[in-house]
Amino acid sequence: MYALAINDLVKRYPTGTEALKGVSLAIEEGEFYGLLGPNGAGKSTLIHCTTGLAQPTSGSIEVFGHDAVHHYGDARLAVGLAPQEPNLDWFLTIEESLDFHGGYFGMTRKDRKERATELLDAFSLTDKRHEKTRFLSGGMKRRLILARALMHRPRLLILDEPTAGVDVELRLELWHYVQRINQEGTTILLTTHYLEEAEQLCNKIAFINGGEIVATGTSAELAAEY
Ligand code: ADP
Ligand code: ADP
Description:
By secondary structure, this protein is α/β, with parallel strands linked by helices. The protein has eight helices and ten strands. The protein has a domain at 2-87 and 154-217: Rossmann fold (3-Layer(aba) Sandwich).
């Protein structure tokens, strides 16, 4: 069973744009999988289809064997999403934001408290836990988004361009965090338009362009070919 298996996925928007033209990919449990491609390649569309935010036109998506197209509820608990836009709830504190998210995923009060304590520590946010999220620095916001996505202990973490628009120093810091998450056993799907990011982090890379996967391999294999 794959962590994520996508088969012949097509997404046509009402505008007529075919953002995905029959994409297939398979991610093994434990992998750090990179979807690399330029703006407009179809990366966000693929993530939206995989997280129940968009309905594919045709094709199948399975998350740990659960049909994510027709019964997203079954796949939902297995997926954590760190969206590209830091869509934080501005009036909540860091701690409340984690707690709220845990509630959304049906965690008990006790479990939410324990998990939040663990994540605040892991992402060096404990001292700031009572700060409103709207006052956080860019780096703290990005860390909170990772922590929030991990709150319900998803087996598959989806990172949508986690370092787009951040400076080099923060990028390195975020790389360190996501590598650790993967080493601790969480499967990761990361989208990026930075070749270097995919090479540094991912053991498997798929190049997407114009809604099609044009090459797949390890970073060493792709470097040899291109
Ligand atoms: P990426 O995330 O790789 O930048 P997207 O998935 O956002 O790519 O976009 C793929 C294509 O689909 C682009 O041509 C984009 O303009 C188009 N597209 C994305 N979202 C929509 C939408 N809601 N309606 C119509 N076209 C869209
Ligand atoms: P907004 O309040 O901006 O509309 P949502 O309520 O859609 O945001 O999502 C809040 C957070 O819940 C997201 O940032 C993400 O971490 C998580 N989330 C949303 N949809 C999903 C999903 N389909 N699978 C897993 N996590 C999700």
